[in-house]
């Protein structure tokens, strides 16, 4: 699959917390924890499970950086 998004990060699923409609999928990417909120239907359709190797694709129009006072 080819994507225009350039922020593609290989990761491994560590936990899937499934709610009624949304699942929080926790990922480990080179020691960094990422969380993706996706539909429960997408989890089923993609066959996601703990230990699955995936690619986190991040597409954002804005990144905001803040520092303390």
Describe the model.
It is built from 1 helix and 4 strands, in the order βββαβ. With 69 residues, the chain is mostly beta strands. It has a single domain (7-58), classed as Beta Barrel (OB fold (Dihydrolipoamide Acetyltransferase, E2P)). It is globular, with a radius of gyration of 14 Å. It has one helix spanning 40-46, and strands spanning 7-18, 22-29, 32-39, 53-58. Strands 3-2-1-4 form a 4-stranded antiparallel beta sheet. The model has no long low-confidence stretch (mean pLDDT 93).
The tally of helices reads: 1
Q: Any idea what the CATH architecture is? A: Beta Barrel
Strand pairing plus helix content: what structural class?
mainly beta
Give a short account of the largest sheet. Answer: 4 strands, antiparallel
> How many strands appear in the DSSP assignment?
4
Any idea what the CATH superfamily is called? RNA polymerase II/Efflux pump adaptor protein, barrel-sandwich hybrid domain
- Rounded to the nearest angstrom, the distance between the terminal CA atoms is 44 Å
- Which CATH first-tier class would you pick? Mainly Beta
* Total of domains: 1
What Rg is obtained from the alpha carbons, in whole angstroms? 14 Å
Shape category = globular
Query: What is the mean predicted local confidence, pLDDT?
Result: 93
H and E string? EEEHE
- CATH topology label: OB fold (Dihydrolipoamide Acetyltransferase, E2P)
How big a fraction of the residues is strand? Answer: over 45%
Residue stretches low in confidence (pLDDT < 50, at least 5 long) are none
């Amino acid at each position: 699959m080819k994507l225009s998004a350039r922020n593609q990060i290989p990761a491994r699923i560590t936990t899937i917390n499934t709610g009624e409609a949304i699942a929080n999928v926790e990922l480990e990417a080179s020691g960094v924890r990422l969380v993706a909120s996706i539909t429960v239907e997408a989890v089923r359709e993609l066959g996601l499970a703990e230990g699955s190797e995936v690619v986190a694709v991040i597409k954002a129009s804005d990144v905001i950086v803040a520092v303390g006072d």
